[in-house]
Specification:
This protein has 171 residues and is of the alpha+beta class. The chain folds into two domains: 103 residues, PH-domain like, CATH 2.30.29; 55 residues. The protein is built from four helices and eight strands, in the order βαααββββββαβ. The strands form two sheets. The chain has a four-stranded antiparallel β-sheet, with no helix packed on it. Strands 7-6-5-8 form a four-stranded mixed β-sheet, with no helix packed on it. About 3% of the residues have low confidence.
């Protein structure tokens, strides 16, 4: 098998990619802590103002700001912005041995046994490496693939024992 194409990713190409934050933990806990901290801070401010306690009001404002800070940090961790260079044309070569992705300035080749899993998104296949210290992901855009190319790719992934995940439509 040999599939070769050149493709320039669009900015929305990276939507839905498995972020490092997603792999570690859900942001729901961060938002819950932010809500509790912010709510407690707001309650302390109200009580402090009723009791005319300046120090209490300051503590309440700190709690409120802490809650807002935690929520902002959790939101920023969930956003994924790629540099403009990631949208420049690249050449993909997919063979029975592995994947090669080449750019004007660099090239990387990864053999199939190095991959732990593959996630099928609507617009791309995303591959994660077995080595936990290497957090890079590799993608194959699905747009340039024919139905036969897609089937051949899935077959080689299955043959190499790479775990396959699929996200529901719209996710």
């Amino acid at each position: 098998m040999r599939i070769e194409f050149t493709y320039a990713r669009r900015p929305d190409h990276f939507s839905g990619y498995p972020l490092l934050a997603e792999r570690r933990a859900s942001p729901i806990l961060s938002y819950l802590i932010a809500a509790v901290s912010g709510g407690a801070g707001a309650a302390i401010v109200v009580v402090a103002l009723v009791e005319r306690s300046g120090q209490g009001a300051i503590c309440g404002v700190c709690g409120l700001l802490l809650g807002v800070g935690i929520a902002v940090a959790a939101r920023q961790r969930s956003q994924f912005v790629m540099p403009a260079a990631a949208m420049e044309p690249r050449r993909w070569v997919i063979t029975d041995e592995g994947i090669e992705i080449a750019h004007a300035d660099s090239s990387v080749t990864v053999a199939w046994p190095a991959f732990r899993s593959m996630m099928a998104l609507r617009h791309a296949y995303v591959f994660m490496l077995k080595d936990p210290a290497d957090r890079r992901t590799f993608d194959i855009p699905r747009g340039p693939l024919t139905e036969a190319d897609d089937a051949a790719l899935r077959e080689v992934v299955a043959r190499h024992g790479i775990t396959f995940y699929s996200r529901p439509v719209g996710a």
